[in-house]
Amino acid sequence: MASLNGLRVSQTDRTDPSSLGWPIHVKPVVQLPKTPELISATLKRAGRQELFFRTCRESFQSTSAFCLWIIHEDLCDEYPPEGWGPPPESPTPPPFSIETISGSGRGMVASRFIKSGETIVVERPIVIYPIIYGTYDERGVYGVVEDLLEAGFPALGETERLLYLDLWNCKTLTGTLGNQIRGISRMNGLCTRFTRSKHLPFYAGVFPSISRCNHSCGPNASATFDEETMATRLFARRPIAPGEQITISYIDTEIPYAFHQEELKTKYLFTCPCNYCKPTKPTKPSRPFKHPYWNIANQTTNKYVDLPAEIYASDIRREQIAFRMDHAKKLWVEWLSPSSKQSDKDLVQFHEDAMVILAQEGLESKRISHIAYLAHVCAALKDEGGFRRWGSILISLTGWPEGRDRLEVMKTWKDWLCDPTISPAWGLRLMARGKAQNTPPA
Ligand SMILES: [Zn+2]
């Protein structure tokens, strides 16, 4: 047993990374089934359960529905069919307007300065349906979803129907009202998650304003869905200037240029015109990276050496972002072992550089876990000032990991900030170092 500031904590518990909570110990994330094989396996697991449509109203007294929900049977008893309450508060007047964007239809534009972390809009979906397809197979399950959308559409309120039909439509599906409904759902769905679902937790929601946001590979905003209020909050990831377009990302942003262009073209029928795909920024990082983790082999990008230098440099940075996310936990565990040769400075540099790269690629949304690691590093070194500095930044950030235990995770960090010595990481590195000094060389 180790005694630290009056706390007696079993040493095995303290060195076990799982006692440190997020981001070091995280529950496995359910992945979206992406191939036809995985989808049929998912449906097989779901047994003979069915999909049908349900209308969501504010209360039993409401005369019109705000949302048409194509729901899988495993969620039917989890939520009341009606009675979602009035819509959650959204900023008034809204800090944006919907405007025509040259070459990108209509989009959302900031009408005043928006602070980093500020809520831009909170909206409920007009239509929400399960993501259970790999391709738009009209004879398969996806066809069933689209038939239900068409059948349920008249049950929506008139305002919602008009807002929905005004959204951008996929070019290949026009003509009948049914085709219009299908085309709009395919092009405007944002991924949402229902954690209570056993089989199909991922749904796509179509929103009146948030679905207007255009894509950027370095988005300045993000959307998070709250299943308890059936509403999505759009918030700024960095300061947004008046007149600047508000963007989100439709895809995984760490993949190289060639792959993400292909994905956007196949799924959303456009070639990405964002600044990160036509970079005007310098080809070299704004400060040099001098530490062992920068020089990793990069196998993916080597295939695209004929790309313009700026795009190539951006690919390498994005690969670094994924690499640093994957290796953070490994490095942490290694650093805490008595035999570790890793310097404290190198580990700090690893995370600080990650944040520089994230800012260069416009991916500030991903910095939150690096900040949490830096706070843990300070705790492990009993550096109270450092822990408070990083911890306060962490608490002030929006965009904590989604899920039902989110509030609990935030509360734990707030408690540690009140008294850093109760953090399970407190002094871990010093303890490991002490052990190493007491062990005679073999
Ligand atoms: Zn782009």
Automatic annotation (TrEMBL):
Domain SET, first and last residues per copy:
94-251
Question: Which InterPro entries does the protein's record reference?
Answer: SET_dom, SET_dom_sf, SET_domain_protein
Q: Name one Pfam family in it.
A: SET
Which CDD domains does the UniProt record give?
Answer: SET_SMYD (cd20071)
Domain of life from the UniProt record? Eukaryota
Region (Disordered): which ranges? Answer: 1-20
List, alphabetically, the PROSITE patterns matched. Answer: SET (PS50280)
Protein name according to UniProt: SET domain-containing protein
Gene source species? Rickenella mellea
